Amino acid sequence: MTMPSPLLRFDGVICRFGEVTAVGALGAGVSCDIASGGFVALVGASGSGKSTLLKTVNTLVQPTEGRVLFGGEDVAHLKPARLRRRVGYVFQGIGLFPHMSVAENIAIGPRLTGEKLAPERIAELLALVELDPAFATRMPDELSGGQRQRVGVARALAGGPELLLMDEPFGALDPVTRDALGRKVRELHDALGLTTVMVTHDMAEALLLADRVLVMDKGQLVADETPRALLAGAGGAVAQRLVAVPRHQAERLAAMEAQG
Amino acid sequence: MFGEGLPTLGFLPALMALTLYALLPILRNAVTAQANLDEGVLEAADGVGMTKWQKLVLVEAPLSAPFIMAGIRTASVWTIGAATLATTIGQPSLGDPIFAGLQTQNWALVLAGCVASAGLALAADNLLWVIEVGLAKRSRWMTFGGMAVVALGILTALWAQSTGSDERRIVIASKQFSEQYILAQLIGARLEAAGYAVEYRDGLGSAVVHSAVASSSIDISVDYTGTIWTNYLKRADNPGREAMYETIRDWEWQQNGVKVLGRLGFENAYAFAMRGDRAQELGVTSLTDLVGKAPQLTVGGDPEFFERPEWLAVRDAYGLRFGQSRNFAPTFMYNALASGEADVISAYTSDGRIAADKLVVLADPKGALPSYDALLMLSPRIAEDKGVIAALEPLLGAISVEAMREANLAVDREDDKKLTPKAAAAELAKSLRRPGLDPGPLTTGR
Known about the structure:
The complex is a heterodimer of chains A (260) and B (446).
Chain A: E1 8-17, E2 20-23, E3 30-34, E4 39-43, H1 50-55, E5 65-70, E6 73-74, H2 80-86, E7 87-91, H3 102-106, H4 108-112, H5 119-128, H6 145-157, E8 163-167, H7 175-192, E9 195-200, H8 203-209, E10 212-217, E11 220-225, H9 227-231, H10 236-259
Parallel strand pairs in A: 4-9, 4-10, 7-8, 8-9
Antiparallel strand pairs in A: 1-2, 1-3, 1-5, 5-6, 10-11
Chain B: H1 11-35, H2 39-47, H3 52-83, H4 95-104, H5 107-136, H6 140-162, E1 170-175, H7 178-193, E2 198-204, H8 206-214, E3 220-224, H9 225-231, H10 241-256, E4 259-267, E5 270-275, H11 276-282, H12 287-290, E6 298-301, H13 309-318, E7 324-327, H14 330-339, E8 344-348, H15 352-356, E9 359-361, E10 373-378, H16 386-392, H17 401-412, H18 421-430
Parallel strand pairs in B: 1-2, 6-7, 6-8
Antiparallel strand pairs in B: 3-10, 4-10, 5-8, 5-9
């Protein structure tokens, strides 16, 4: 039987920084396939190597050994500007360019490949992240944190990417904004037919948004399960320790409610 | 490293020095701006796929621009202040009135130069501030308006620099003391009377003047035999006044093509001076007379005098052993003599205060003190100019040390008889003696 080739394949990826091996610590490297259309959460404690692994996809980090294949092609052989136009990137630092308006920020990726975005397209992208079209002319320092990350998401979607990479995208936001924006992104993922890889240290966020959860520990993939399977106890000790945190919180809240 | 092509005087060296001086604050601010760029912004630039060049042009440069502009502002204020020093290397600047005023104690002139310089610095600072704010607020009209005014200012300055240099005048230098200012005016007045256009470069450093005359950047200067002997011939011996003069005259001609037209007639040498009444009382007229009495006396000198070869030469030639030697600031040396704190002081023979305080300059029969004959020097460019030589020859041997002292005193004094160097030069011109002889009978003043 022939499997359809995956959109993204990690093939024995090892990343070393001097003495430290961030990814692939056991020597075999990290290997894993991500199918088109999936919403995959990459979960682990700080320093587990999850961000480093994510950045090998858009070549912000070059693997020491192994390859990353995107649509069957080694990303190392693709032109960075072209590759990054097909791969949206949202991260905790947001990184809006402070000297450019919201519209200029959103249009920057296509501009680099020589395409000018029409004002209608900017308005459409703003609408996708639930911002008023009037925001187009504002400067980043006039926006709240949540609004800025919405612009960040719109910028990542501006090039019409096939793949959306998110590195702790909601880490700096307040809980209400975080919840709303998380759901919005999941909605966009479904509506636009994206493939999404989201790095987070928050297992609750991963379980609620993703349909596949990869758990990393000390540079190795230690679990690869659906949220339901994880909740049912699969995935091993490290994964279950992470699942236990939101589960106990939920239980304690439920108990408090029951006591009235 | 620049070889011999680089002039030592004027616009280019001033521009180069000030440019190097201005680099530090600009570079420092650029580096600071670069180091303080937000990590997230740089990651986003990579994340959207910018090349290194695009990152520099689209992100790093515009975000650093306000900081770099602040550095340029600092540099402009520094530079306008430092540019007043360009006077000392012969580039006309706002330092001209400051240096001239300091030398002749004309405080209004000093103040005018300072106010003009500070005003220019403030104007430049404000203008650049407008550009800086324009960059920070991304206001195009502020940025480009400010830049347009700056460009206009630079063009005007360049235009002013380029005009006026089309006609070559005779350039007369003066070093940083009154006597030099007066002599420059005296020489200039004679040349103008002979129909020449002249230009003054006042307040130059001594070494600058010497090399500028050799390169014809300056045409006429007054230098002193003792200075040339020690500083340029690097000689420490004392072959006597005539031999020293002749050696220097031949050396300047062969080595530099500079014509030593002759001696003006007076010396501005180191000498020992006493109050007239005290000298009479002790019966002292020369250094020889002093030897027996020195152990009871106090000698005063400026702070460097007792380290100088002149002092060592005199001490060893006569076997002088003073009871006490004291250092005074040059201005206070004369007061010390008047009040009796010092019995003998080191002085310059042409100093106006010798006349003012009725001092006696002690003779130097053994010739231990090197001579400092004032020399009229002509650059290679005008060394053979018969008109110039004819106009200046009457000055040779014509200025007595007494006349020079009077003129120096007239410029240095603080009361209502104070004269400008130009007026003092006109007075001096009236007291020229026995014109046209060289080497004329020279007054030593000792």
